[in-house]
Amino acid sequence: MLRHPKLMTFAAAALVAAVAMPAAQAQQRLSLAERVDRLEQQAAQGGGDSAVDMVNRISALQQQVQDLQGQVEELRHALDQAQQRSKDQYIDLDSRIGRLEGVPAAGAVAATPKTPEQPPDIELGSPAAAPPPPMTGTLPPADPAGAEVPADSASAMDVYNQAFAALKDGRYAESARRFQSFIDRYPDDALTGNAYYWLGESYYVTQNYPIAEEAFRTLLARYPDSQKAPDALLKIGYSQYEQRQWNEAEATLNQVVETYPDTTVARLAQGRLRALRMETQR
User: Fold this and answer.
1) In principle, which of 4, 42, 63, 211 could form an S-S bond with 203, CB 3.0–4.6 Å?
2) Taking the model in full, what pTM does it have?
3) For residues 124 and 154, is the Cβ–Cβ distance under 8 A?
């Protein structure tokens, strides 16, 4: 075999290159693995930072939500107080106007004195004083000082006046008992219609609204032409309002406005309708 010097040199160089190439490739592969590992470590470190940052953000948002919930509760409490004040003002207005309606003009006192047939309205259910404990459906027996006067020694007027005096004095249980006794003993008397109304008031002021409503309804059913019929219809609406029977109360109060327009009871009904709308918007 002929051996040319140049060919031999080229062959040697090629052999060296062939041997060196796998080592270079291995070095390159090692470098890439290191780079991938480094990138994974960086990603892991970056992911940890992101997780901590996310937790911090969630905690901040939770705190903001709690702050907002606290503000909402404060605003709701303030709204409830404002609505209660409005309700109390309407009730106070009702009692004040009712009391003023029972007082005749100064120049007419001598000419038109009050009579038992038209007793003055009294201030009942005023928010200024706490109401007495509610009465139950069964009235307690009278004490000896407040015992009923026998029928043979007292007229219907006397019995009625005794019941009304108990109502004015705030002896509501006794008042209710006396008015019921008057109704039972004098079912056909001219004052029986009024007695039903004040019986209802005796229960209304002690927050026995269902029983009060029943008394007012009885008045309207048996004595539709009574002078107390407009007031009884109004107080039915009031009783329904206090029982939170919103639809029934609204219908009754609107009936008062339509049946007795441009009257005091109509204005009071309109005021209570405004209070009702405030309640239903809560």
Assistant:
1) 211
2) 0.52
3) no
Cβ-contact 130, 161 below 8 angstroms: no
| Segments in the chain below pLDDT 50 | 1-2, 99, 101-153
Which structural domains are found in the chain, ordered by start? 83-102+117-280 (1.25.40.10)
Q: Cβ–Cβ contacts within 10 Å for residue 3, how many?
A: 6
Predicted local confidence at residue 160, as pLDDT:
95
Residue 47 one-letter amino acid: G
Who's near 195: CB < 8 A, 6+ residues apart?
Answer: 160, 163, 179, 182, 183, 189
* 3 state DSSP class of 107: helix
Q: Is 184 exposed, middle or buried (0-12, 13-18, 19+ CB in 10 A)?
A: exposed
Q: For tokens 């590992």, what's the residue?
A: 37
pLDDT score of 101:
46
Map residue 142 onto helix, strand or coil.
Answer: coil
Rounded Cα distance between 118 and 124, Å, is 17
Contact call for residues 202 and 182 (beta carbons, < 8 A)? no
Please list the alpha-helical segments (H only) found in the chain. 5-101, 156-168, 172-185, 192-204, 209-222, 229-242, 246-259, 264-280
Alpha carbon separation from 18 to 26, 44, 146 (Å, rounded): 13, 40, 130
Number of residues written out for the chain = 282
Tokens of 255: 């009936």
Give CA–CA dist 145/46, Å, rounded. Answer: 91
Side-chain-side CA neighbours of 123 within 13 Å: the count stands at: 14
